[in-house]
Amino acid sequence: MALAGSIAALTLFAFGLGTGCGSKAGHPPIVRVTVTPGYVPLGDAYHTDVVLDGSGSRDQIDDPSGALPLGFAWTVEDDHATIAPSPSAQVVTVRIAGTHPVTAHLTVTDAQGDSASASAQIGVTAP
């Protein structure tokens, strides 16, 4: 099924989705995920680079100046997908099969050990 238009990027924001608290019982970071492009062609067979960008994530309550580092952990629900340069980078490139939509997950952990997660879907469109 062809789409009338194309979505170049999809940005998702996660607020208050804390998945754990560190020793200081701070606040979880705000997770922002941008997916570019939002779709790959049907039957793509791992040819299209999809950029997953978590660099907009912030620990705005506990570290408003952004001085402390955040930890990133990406996973993709495609057993054969590649994640480069590494699943712990702020911005990664993935390739998926293009046989069905795939969900990408990002968990961000702040310096106090508090974490939050967001997910985004990479869609499939007719070539």
Could you describe the 3D structure shown?
Residues 1-8 and 15-23 have low confidence and may be disordered. The chain is mainly β and 127 residues long. It is built from no helices and ten strands. The chain is elongated. The strands form two sheets. Strands 1-3-5-8-7 form a five-stranded antiparallel sheet, with no helix packed on it. Strands 2, 4, 6, 9 and 10 form a five-stranded mixed sheet that branches.
Summarize the structure.
The chain is 0% helix and 43% strand. It has 127 residues and is mainly beta.
Beta-strand content estimate: 35-45%
User: Uncertain spans, ≥5 residues at pLDDT below 50?
Assistant: 1-8, 15-23
Strand order of the largest sheet: 1-3-5-8-7
Number of strands: 10
Helix/strand-derived category reads mainly beta
What Rg, in angstroms, do the CA atoms define? 16 Å
Largest sheet features: 5 strands, antiparallel
Helical region count?
0
Write the layout of secondary structure elements.
Elements: E1 10-14, E2 18-20, E3 31-36, E4 39-41, E5 50-53, E6 71-76, E7 82-84, E8 91-95, E9 102-109, E10 115-125
Parallel strand pairs: 4-10
Antiparallel strand pairs: 1-3, 2-10, 3-5, 5-8, 6-9, 7-8, 9-10
Considering the chains and any ligands shown, give keywords for the structure.
mainly beta, 127 residues, 10 strands, disordered N terminus, five-stranded antiparallel sheet, five-stranded mixed sheet
